[in-house]
Structure prediction request, 272 residues.
Amino acid sequence: MKNTSRIVLSVFVALVLVQCKNQAVTAPPASPKGKTLLAIFAHPDDEATVSPVLSKYAAEGVEVYLVVATDGRLGVAEHAKIPGGDSLAHVRKRELACATEKLGIHAPIMFGLHDQLKMGEGMAALNEQLDSLRRGVQKLFVELKPDVVITWNASGWTGHHDHRLVGAIVTEVFESRQWEKPTQLYYSAIPSGRLPKDAVMQLATVDSSFLPVKIAVTETDYQKAKESWLCHKSQYTPEMIDAMTQLVRQALNGSAWFQPAIPISGKKETLF
Prediction:
Protein backbone atom coordinates (compact mmCIF):
# COMPACT_ATOMS: atom_id res chain seq x y z
CA MET A 1 0.00 0.00 0.00
CA LYS A 2 2.81 2.35 0.89
CA ASN A 3 4.54 1.56 -2.40
CA THR A 4 1.33 2.24 -4.31
CA SER A 5 0.87 5.58 -2.53
CA ARG A 6 4.46 6.51 -3.23
CA ILE A 7 4.02 5.71 -6.94
CA VAL A 8 0.81 7.75 -7.15
CA LEU A 9 2.47 10.68 -5.42
CA SER A 10 5.50 10.49 -7.74
CA VAL A 11 3.27 10.47 -10.81
CA PHE A 12 1.31 13.45 -9.48
CA VAL A 13 4.48 15.45 -8.78
CA ALA A 14 5.84 14.61 -12.21
CA LEU A 15 2.63 15.79 -13.88
CA VAL A 16 2.72 19.04 -11.92
CA LEU A 17 6.34 19.65 -12.90
CA VAL A 18 5.60 18.95 -16.55
CA GLN A 19 2.62 21.30 -16.43
CA CYS A 20 4.70 24.07 -14.84
CA LYS A 21 7.44 23.55 -17.39
CA ASN A 22 4.96 23.76 -20.26
CA GLN A 23 3.47 26.93 -18.80
CA ALA A 24 6.92 28.50 -18.60
CA VAL A 25 7.63 27.65 -22.23
CA THR A 26 4.31 28.92 -23.58
CA ALA A 27 4.02 32.00 -21.36
CA PRO A 28 3.65 35.23 -23.38
CA PRO A 29 6.62 37.61 -23.50
CA ALA A 30 6.82 40.29 -20.84
CA SER A 31 5.08 43.54 -21.66
CA PRO A 32 7.43 46.12 -23.23
CA LYS A 33 5.60 48.93 -21.42
CA GLY A 34 8.08 51.30 -19.81
CA LYS A 35 10.83 50.39 -22.29
CA THR A 36 12.51 52.78 -24.73
CA LEU A 37 13.04 52.25 -28.45
CA LEU A 38 15.31 54.49 -30.51
CA ALA A 39 15.14 54.40 -34.32
CA ILE A 40 17.95 56.19 -36.18
CA PHE A 41 17.80 56.81 -39.92
CA ALA A 42 19.23 59.14 -42.54
CA HIS A 43 16.36 61.17 -44.03
CA PRO A 44 12.89 62.42 -43.20
CA ASP A 45 10.63 59.62 -44.56
CA ASP A 46 13.11 56.77 -43.93
CA GLU A 47 11.02 55.78 -40.91
CA ALA A 48 8.38 54.48 -43.34
CA THR A 49 10.33 51.21 -43.59
CA VAL A 50 9.55 50.38 -39.93
CA SER A 51 6.65 52.70 -39.16
CA PRO A 52 4.14 49.87 -38.47
CA VAL A 53 6.50 48.57 -35.76
CA LEU A 54 7.02 52.05 -34.30
CA SER A 55 3.26 52.52 -34.14
CA LYS A 56 2.74 49.07 -32.61
CA TYR A 57 5.19 49.59 -29.77
CA ALA A 58 4.04 53.14 -29.06
CA ALA A 59 0.49 51.83 -28.64
CA GLU A 60 1.83 49.23 -26.19
CA GLY A 61 3.36 51.89 -23.96
CA VAL A 62 6.93 51.95 -25.26
CA GLU A 63 8.70 55.32 -25.38
CA VAL A 64 9.52 55.54 -29.08
CA TYR A 65 11.99 58.11 -30.40
CA LEU A 66 12.89 58.76 -34.02
CA VAL A 67 16.23 60.32 -34.95
CA VAL A 68 16.93 61.64 -38.43
CA ALA A 69 20.51 62.52 -39.34
CA THR A 70 20.07 64.82 -42.35
CA ASP A 71 17.73 67.68 -43.26
CA GLY A 72 16.72 66.22 -46.63
CA ARG A 73 17.44 69.45 -48.50
CA LEU A 74 18.49 67.66 -51.69
CA GLY A 75 15.47 65.40 -51.99
CA VAL A 76 13.87 67.29 -54.86
CA ALA A 77 10.78 65.64 -56.37
CA GLU A 78 9.31 66.91 -59.62
CA HIS A 79 5.68 66.74 -58.51
CA ALA A 80 6.25 68.97 -55.44
CA LYS A 81 7.81 71.91 -57.31
CA ILE A 82 9.97 72.79 -54.28
CA PRO A 83 13.59 73.78 -55.01
CA GLY A 84 16.38 72.12 -53.11
CA GLY A 85 17.97 73.92 -50.18
CA ASP A 86 16.66 75.64 -47.06
CA SER A 87 13.06 75.83 -48.31
CA LEU A 88 12.85 72.09 -48.89
CA ALA A 89 14.63 71.32 -45.61
CA HIS A 90 12.04 73.43 -43.75
CA VAL A 91 9.16 71.62 -45.47
CA ARG A 92 10.60 68.21 -44.71
CA LYS A 93 11.03 69.12 -41.06
CA ARG A 94 7.31 69.89 -40.84
CA GLU A 95 6.45 66.70 -42.69
CA LEU A 96 8.49 64.60 -40.27
CA ALA A 97 6.74 66.20 -37.30
CA CYS A 98 3.42 65.30 -38.93
CA ALA A 99 4.57 61.70 -39.44
CA THR A 100 5.63 61.16 -35.82
CA GLU A 101 2.32 62.62 -34.61
CA LYS A 102 0.38 60.18 -36.80
CA LEU A 103 2.45 57.28 -35.43
CA GLY A 104 1.87 58.35 -31.83
CA ILE A 105 5.57 58.58 -31.01
CA HIS A 106 7.76 61.36 -29.61
CA ALA A 107 8.48 64.45 -31.71
CA PRO A 108 11.43 63.79 -34.04
CA ILE A 109 15.03 64.46 -33.09
CA MET A 110 16.82 65.99 -36.07
CA PHE A 111 20.58 66.32 -36.16
CA GLY A 112 20.30 68.73 -39.10
CA LEU A 113 23.30 67.37 -40.99
CA HIS A 114 23.61 68.14 -44.69
CA ASP A 115 21.76 65.85 -47.04
CA GLN A 116 24.35 63.50 -48.62
CA LEU A 117 26.58 64.40 -45.64
CA LYS A 118 28.56 66.87 -47.79
CA MET A 119 30.37 63.98 -49.46
CA GLY A 120 30.53 66.02 -52.65
CA GLU A 121 32.74 68.55 -50.87
CA GLY A 122 35.53 66.10 -50.13
CA MET A 123 36.75 63.90 -47.31
CA ALA A 124 37.28 66.69 -44.76
CA ALA A 125 33.66 67.86 -45.02
CA LEU A 126 32.34 64.28 -44.95
CA ASN A 127 34.45 63.37 -41.90
CA GLU A 128 33.18 66.44 -40.08
CA GLN A 129 29.59 65.35 -40.71
CA LEU A 130 30.30 61.79 -39.58
CA ASP A 131 32.03 63.00 -36.41
CA SER A 132 29.00 65.12 -35.59
CA LEU A 133 26.73 62.14 -36.20
CA ARG A 134 28.89 59.93 -34.00
CA ARG A 135 28.79 62.40 -31.10
CA GLY A 136 25.05 62.82 -31.45
CA VAL A 137 24.39 59.08 -31.30
CA GLN A 138 26.68 58.66 -28.28
CA LYS A 139 24.83 61.48 -26.49
CA LEU A 140 21.44 59.88 -27.10
CA PHE A 141 22.66 56.48 -25.91
CA VAL A 142 23.69 58.11 -22.65
CA GLU A 143 20.71 60.41 -22.18
CA LEU A 144 17.81 58.28 -23.42
CA LYS A 145 19.22 54.90 -22.38
CA PRO A 146 17.20 53.06 -25.02
CA ASP A 147 16.59 49.37 -24.47
CA VAL A 148 16.84 48.71 -28.19
CA VAL A 149 17.98 50.64 -31.26
CA ILE A 150 16.89 50.20 -34.87
CA THR A 151 18.91 51.39 -37.86
CA TRP A 152 20.02 50.39 -41.37
CA ASN A 153 22.07 47.31 -42.18
CA ALA A 154 25.03 47.30 -44.58
CA SER A 155 22.82 47.67 -47.65
CA GLY A 156 20.64 50.42 -46.23
CA TRP A 157 17.57 48.86 -47.92
CA THR A 158 17.96 50.92 -51.09
CA GLY A 159 21.74 51.06 -51.29
CA HIS A 160 21.69 54.82 -50.64
CA HIS A 161 25.09 55.96 -49.35
CA ASP A 162 23.52 58.09 -46.61
CA HIS A 163 21.64 55.03 -45.35
CA ARG A 164 24.79 52.93 -45.34
CA LEU A 165 26.87 55.56 -43.55
CA VAL A 166 24.28 56.27 -40.86
CA GLY A 167 23.85 52.57 -40.17
CA ALA A 168 27.62 52.11 -40.01
CA ILE A 169 28.08 54.94 -37.51
CA VAL A 170 25.25 53.72 -35.27
CA THR A 171 26.79 50.25 -35.34
CA GLU A 172 30.22 51.68 -34.57
CA VAL A 173 28.91 53.51 -31.51
CA PHE A 174 26.97 50.47 -30.32
CA GLU A 175 30.06 48.28 -30.59
CA SER A 176 32.45 50.85 -29.09
CA ARG A 177 31.85 49.81 -25.49
CA GLN A 178 29.81 47.58 -23.19
CA TRP A 179 26.66 49.67 -22.73
CA GLU A 180 24.27 48.95 -19.90
CA LYS A 181 21.72 50.17 -22.45
CA PRO A 182 21.05 49.83 -25.33
CA THR A 183 21.08 46.10 -24.84
CA GLN A 184 20.48 45.26 -28.50
CA LEU A 185 20.79 46.80 -31.96
CA TYR A 186 18.53 45.64 -34.78
CA TYR A 187 18.62 46.06 -38.54
CA SER A 188 15.29 46.12 -40.34
CA ALA A 189 15.25 43.92 -43.43
CA ILE A 190 13.18 42.17 -46.06
CA PRO A 191 13.81 38.42 -46.35
CA SER A 192 15.32 37.34 -49.66
CA GLY A 193 12.84 35.95 -52.17
CA ARG A 194 9.92 37.99 -50.85
CA LEU A 195 9.93 40.71 -53.49
CA PRO A 196 8.32 40.01 -56.87
CA LYS A 197 10.87 39.87 -59.68
CA ASP A 198 8.88 42.42 -61.65
CA ALA A 199 8.52 44.87 -58.73
CA VAL A 200 8.93 48.49 -59.77
CA MET A 201 11.16 49.12 -56.75
CA GLN A 202 13.85 46.53 -56.07
CA LEU A 203 15.25 46.63 -52.54
CA ALA A 204 18.22 44.90 -50.95
CA THR A 205 17.17 41.78 -49.07
CA VAL A 206 18.68 39.52 -46.40
CA ASP A 207 18.61 35.74 -46.22
CA SER A 208 16.02 34.61 -43.68
CA SER A 209 18.64 32.62 -41.75
CA PHE A 210 19.99 35.97 -40.53
CA LEU A 211 16.54 37.22 -39.47
CA PRO A 212 15.48 35.40 -36.29
CA VAL A 213 13.23 38.23 -35.08
CA LYS A 214 9.75 38.40 -36.59
CA ILE A 215 7.28 40.99 -35.31
CA ALA A 216 3.58 40.66 -36.08
CA VAL A 217 1.88 43.91 -37.13
CA THR A 218 -1.84 44.54 -37.39
CA GLU A 219 -4.11 46.31 -39.85
CA THR A 220 -4.26 49.23 -37.40
CA ASP A 221 -0.46 49.46 -37.44
CA TYR A 222 -0.45 49.47 -41.24
CA GLN A 223 -3.12 52.15 -41.37
CA LYS A 224 -1.23 54.44 -39.00
CA ALA A 225 1.95 53.81 -40.97
CA LYS A 226 0.25 54.81 -44.21
CA GLU A 227 -1.22 57.96 -42.63
CA SER A 228 2.25 58.96 -41.45
CA TRP A 229 3.76 58.24 -44.86
CA LEU A 230 1.19 60.51 -46.49
CA CYS A 231 2.67 63.40 -44.47
CA HIS A 232 5.71 63.33 -46.77
CA LYS A 233 3.98 65.19 -49.60
CA SER A 234 7.21 66.75 -50.88
CA GLN A 235 8.55 63.30 -51.69
CA TYR A 236 5.60 61.17 -52.78
CA THR A 237 2.19 61.37 -54.40
CA PRO A 238 -0.64 59.38 -52.80
CA GLU A 239 -0.48 57.01 -55.76
CA MET A 240 3.21 56.33 -55.18
CA ILE A 241 2.55 55.62 -51.49
CA ASP A 242 -0.32 53.27 -52.36
CA ALA A 243 1.95 51.30 -54.70
CA MET A 244 4.88 51.10 -52.26
CA THR A 245 2.64 50.25 -49.31
CA GLN A 246 1.09 47.41 -51.28
CA LEU A 247 4.50 46.13 -52.34
CA VAL A 248 5.91 46.09 -48.81
CA ARG A 249 2.76 44.55 -47.34
CA GLN A 250 2.80 41.75 -49.88
CA ALA A 251 6.50 41.12 -49.30
CA LEU A 252 6.27 41.05 -45.51
CA ASN A 253 2.81 39.48 -45.18
CA GLY A 254 1.82 41.00 -41.84
CA SER A 255 5.25 40.81 -40.26
CA ALA A 256 8.39 42.88 -39.82
CA TRP A 257 11.77 41.14 -39.83
CA PHE A 258 14.92 42.16 -37.99
CA GLN A 259 18.55 41.10 -37.85
CA PRO A 260 20.12 41.46 -34.38
CA ALA A 261 23.64 42.88 -34.19
CA ILE A 262 24.35 40.55 -31.26
CA PRO A 263 23.46 36.99 -32.34
CA ILE A 264 20.65 35.33 -30.41
CA SER A 265 19.63 31.70 -30.00
CA GLY A 266 16.30 30.62 -31.39
CA LYS A 267 13.50 32.81 -32.70
CA LYS A 268 11.94 35.91 -31.16
CA GLU A 269 8.64 37.69 -31.65
CA THR A 270 9.57 40.91 -29.90
CA LEU A 271 12.42 43.40 -29.95
CA PHE A 272 12.50 43.45 -26.14
Notes: Helices lie at 2-26, 51-59, 86-103, 123-144, 161-175, 219-229, 238-252. Strands lie at 36-41, 63-70, 109-113, 148-151, 184-189, 213-216, 255-260.
